[in-house]
Specification:
This protein has about 160 residues and is mainly alpha-helical. About 55% of the residues lie in helices and about 10% in strands.
Length: about 160
């Protein structure tokens, strides 16, 4: 699905919004049908699912798609509640929702990202993503820490966010 990041959330509609969010998030998470320990030793499966995952667990591609859809809806809901769909660019929403999926709702509610989203200071919001450079206490800017994907993903979020302004 090719989207114009400058479109507003309202222009895309809820069905299109979820499809775009799934595509964006899947491109960074990748899929694993068997549970594994992520870079901070958390049991993970599918497209980054961690809740209720235990080592030895196996799921089908269809189950992974369903879990991702359910979890994205849950993680994106608080973000959606803090925007004006008629004025919020889709790129801002996708980047913020993906960030919330990765870092969690608790961090979202306490974050500068949320404050800037509510204030509609989208340019400042975009610049927040690269500041998130740690995973499990490790600085991911150092490739030897084996978590450089955190850096890449946050830089891509920033780029998508800025492209939408």
């Amino acid at each position: 699905m090719k989207i114009n990041p400058k479109m507003t959330v309202a222009a895309l509609g809820l069905t299109g919004l979820l499809a775009a969010q799934m595509e964006f998030t899947k491109s960074y998470e990748g899929i694993s049908l068997s549970a594994y320990l992520d870079s901070v030793a958390v049991p993970t499966i599918c497209y980054g699912k961690t809740a209720g995952v235990r080592m030895g667990m196996n799921l089908s591609p269809a189950q992974c798609e369903q879990y991702l859809q359910v979890e994205l809806k849950a993680h994106c809901e608080p973000v959606f509640k803090n925007i004006d769909p008629k004025t919020t660019p889709i790129g801002v929403f996708l980047a913020t929702c993906d960030w919330t999926y990765q870092y969690g709702e608790t961090r979202y509610h306490k974050s500068t990202i949320k404050k800037l989203l509510v204030a509609k200071d989208f340019k400042a919001l975009c610049s927040e993503f690269p500041k998130w450079k740690y995973a499990g206490g490790k600085d991911c800017t150092y490739r030897l820490n084996n978590c450089y994907g955190v850096i890449t993903r946050n830089l891509d979020r920033e780029a998508l966010c800025l492209a939408s302004l």
